């Protein structure tokens, strides 16, 4: 993802309905995703692909998992 694309996504999240996802505290689902990513990293020495996160949590698309990953990155947790 280019810096320009990332900047546009950040603006969309902050200006749109998803701004609440970037609060200072993790939501319960964000905490679950972060815990899963940490566990996966400890077992595999790499972070899980978004497709693995999506499959683990039962999401229909990787985009749903990417939403949580983006939120964690913007919050400074990843």
What's the total number of strands? 0
Order of helices and strands: HHHH
Global shape: globular
- Overall pLDDT, averaged? 81
**What percent of the residues sit in helical stretches (DSSP H or I)?**
55-70%
Percent strand equals: under 5%
Which structural class do you get from the secondary structure elements?
A: mainly alpha
Largest sheet: none
Low-confidence stretches: none
How many angstroms separate the termini?
Answer: 16 Å
Rg over CA atoms: 13 Å
Count the DSSP helices: 4
Describe the structure.
By secondary structure, the protein is mainly α. Helix content is 65%, strand content 0%. The longest helix has 17 residues, at 28-44. The model has no long low-confidence stretch (mean pLDDT 81).
